[in-house]
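## retry 2 of 3
previous attempt timed out at serialization; input unchanged, resubmitting
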Amino acid sequence: MIRSVVVFLFLCNAYFAFAQYSVSGKILDNEGNPLIGANIIIENSDIGTTSGIDGDFSIRGLDEGNCILKVSYVGFETFRHEFYLSHDHHIDLSLKRSSVLGEEVIIRATRAESTIPVAYTNVTEEDLDLLNFGQDLPYLLSMSPSLVTTSDAGTGIGYTGFRIRGTDANRINITINGIPLNDAESHGVFWVNMPDFASSLESVQIQRGVGTSTNGAGAFGATINMQTNILKQDPYAEVNSSFGSFYTIKNTLTAGTGLIRDRLSFDLRLSKINSDGYIDRGWSDLKSFFVSGGYYTEKCIMKMNIFSGKEQTYQAWYGVPSYLLDSVRTYNPAGKYTGPDGEPRYYDNETDNYQQDHYQFFFSHRLGRSLTMNAGLHYTYGRGYYEEFREDRNLEDYKLDTLVLGDTTIRSTDLIRQKWLDNDFYGVTFSLNYKHNRSDLTIGGAWNKYDGRHFGKVIWARFMSDGMKDHEWYRGTGIKTDFNVFGKYNYLLTDGLSLYLDMQFRRIEHTIDGIDDDQRDISQSHIFNFWNPKAGIFYEPNDHHDIYFMYAVANREPNRSNYTDSDPEGIQPKPERLNDIEAGYRFQYKSLIAGINFYYMYYKDQLILTGEINDVGAAIMTNVDNSTRKGMELIFEWKIIKALSWNFNTTWSESLIHDFTEYVDEYDANWNPAGQRAENLGKTNIAFSPQIIANSEIQINPLKNFSLVLTSNYVGKQYIDNTSNDDRVLDPYFTGHFKIQYSFHTKLIRNIDLHLLINNITNAKYESNAWVYSYYFNGNRQMEDGYFPQAGIHFLTGISLLF
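## retry succeeded, writing output
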């Protein structure tokens, strides 16, 4: 690793030696006051800087040629200056107040700006559009550093997931326009409930590590902040259609009025996605819409978003047993039962069904030259179930009486059951931003409440006993209130040197009542008060280099299943705590940008699977005393020539539990439980934490409006459990993807885009996720598992018409 860093720094400094031209100047407002912290970039590149204490800026080391300077500042019109750069160029400019308040104020409280000492990646609307053929958002973000994706159905459509730095999604804070998206009970985000949401996004920011304070769940691996579509000045309509392998079809219609009479704007999106999936019966039927309306003045924004997603997917979450991977990679055991003829059959409605409706209302107001406030109201209604056919189930487990028919006593039956979740989530978010001279202060917070109902129905049974149709066998509730306030202060000490302080207080009240599906009483209550401090320093000695350091603390409460699965007579789960240290360096010069980030994440009481079980034999998560993640992230962007660019990032990491004890179930020769065997394994690797992740993208533009893009992803070996046992691993895999895009226009159609995306061009056979259960039977160690194979070579092609 040290050698790689030395080579990296040498290349940067070698490249720096070929200096050419500079662009410099001063940024003022229309009253002649300097604007401190204005964003200045060279358009169509990531080269940029911010204005200093006197509004001064300088960008050096630029090549000769056409250049577009873009300057932006909250509350002012964006300035573009196009010129031919053949010598050092100096410009002093005065920004005009915007006629409408910019929508960046809505997300300002949760975003990191260029001088905040956080490791982050910004993904633009254009970046998302290049890959948006219907796959879920995790796959559109797959080029981000330290991110690994997975798909149950093997194609990126349906149930998908991701990890960042090895951290699973229920430890990643996700917001939409500053409003929490994580499920309050599970802490997870289910992208299948939001099909084609990328078509309504303006930008995404991924902050790795704890990041800055935000609303919602604790950030233990990363935060993802999404901003939906912002105001478009002109009317538009766009049709996107694509189709491809596994009978995948996506159709999207978007339209907007533009700004009506300088005040009103309305936008609409309708989407429909269908796919059979790579896995047998792993099909998806997905529908969604997004409607937005806004009222804009120079000092005020009032905006309402309504969006909804409805999904039906055949269950593909069981995986393929390892012994079938070489022969039947698409095998899906979901819904399997034995027919009257003794042959295996599959229940055709073994499906997951869910709908989620979101309502968001925002009010933003500029209270003065330096002060802006923002408030949001939100309500989410979710409801749905998954349906399963189950053979030979005990009647008493479903609160059904034993049935006596003549001389026959019936204690079990085949049945079809549904497990339901019906929930409401609502609340308010708020923020106040003061930006003046050297100071940038944000005070914000949120109050949110979740009300969830969990219940199960038996909708059919071969022997229904005393039950009726839709017989209910369990019901439980979950009420959770989450309140937080935070303050962020960024102070420009001198030109290029800024100090950052961030403090958050979070209070959680969580009450669980009722019985679970195994008839256990799960009633309990918990209250938590967390302080999450963060502090850092950012130093930019000149326009080529910047350095930052950040120390942050995050706390996270156990989720619902951590509590409901725990043994009521045993040790109860405790909250987790993370201390995160981040240090980075970024270099930019001419058409080269390179960055390196080091991180050390120390966990106290991280909840993991150890093999321990509860009072009814189900696996539980247990707090481990000490665990760590440490690593280095390298980012490299180089526009080699006008028609050729290369983006590359890689992560080297080590994730360890420092003292791990494994618990393994034991059964005798008659399959009677015989307790658990404990074995201390000492230091082990944390599951699903590859030591190497690498992504590469090469783009060639041989002709105007014609591009060829080759992307590749490498993920190193991952352990499936926390034992570091080489018999339970996901092998390393390398995949390549090829994309062709051609754009043109006609008199009637503003722009026509033709796309072709070929995924996994090397036809690699690999698995991106798995589960494993090992046990001792009659003294011998045995194992059951399920792997999730991903599709071989497959394609998606499409057309986009913009009117």
